[in-house]
Amino acid sequence: MTTATQTPKRSIQMTDASLNQVIALREKQGTDLCLRVGVRQGGCSGMSYTMTFEDPSNIQESDEVDDYEGFKVVCDRKSMLYLYGLVLDYSDAMIGGGFQFTNPNANQTCGCGKSFSA
């Protein structure tokens, strides 16, 4: 796993690999978007991670916002209860590649790594 960028302290940590991948995906959208990370009910372990691009004008005052040199990662307050300290990584491996979530709040994680229980 690549190391997460540590300065300044952020609620959701992104490794260089995940940040580069998200920025590359955003550029394909052709507009300046932020990344919203959250949780929802579902998945094999009870809760699953969500990631979507959205317009920065949708950021709410109650949202937690982490700034990565101009790129914003946003999380709603309820999801942050489950995601504080999350490390988001990315691997381009042919098997098991994609975004990977290392969540210190998860009691159990499913085999695919995309859902958890807390």
Automatic annotation (TrEMBL):
PROSITE patterns: HESB. Residues 12-114 form the Core domain. This is Core domain-containing protein. It comes from Neosynechococcus sphagnicola sy1. Gene3D superfamilies: HesB-like domain (2.60.300.12). It comes from the Bacteria. One of its GO terms (biological process) is iron-sulfur cluster assembly. Belongs to the HesB/IscA family. Ycf83 subfamily. One of its GO terms (molecular function) is 2 iron, 2 sulfur cluster binding. InterPro entries: ATAP, ATAP_core_dom, FeS_cluster_insertion_CS, HesB-like_dom_sf, IscA_plant_cyanobact.
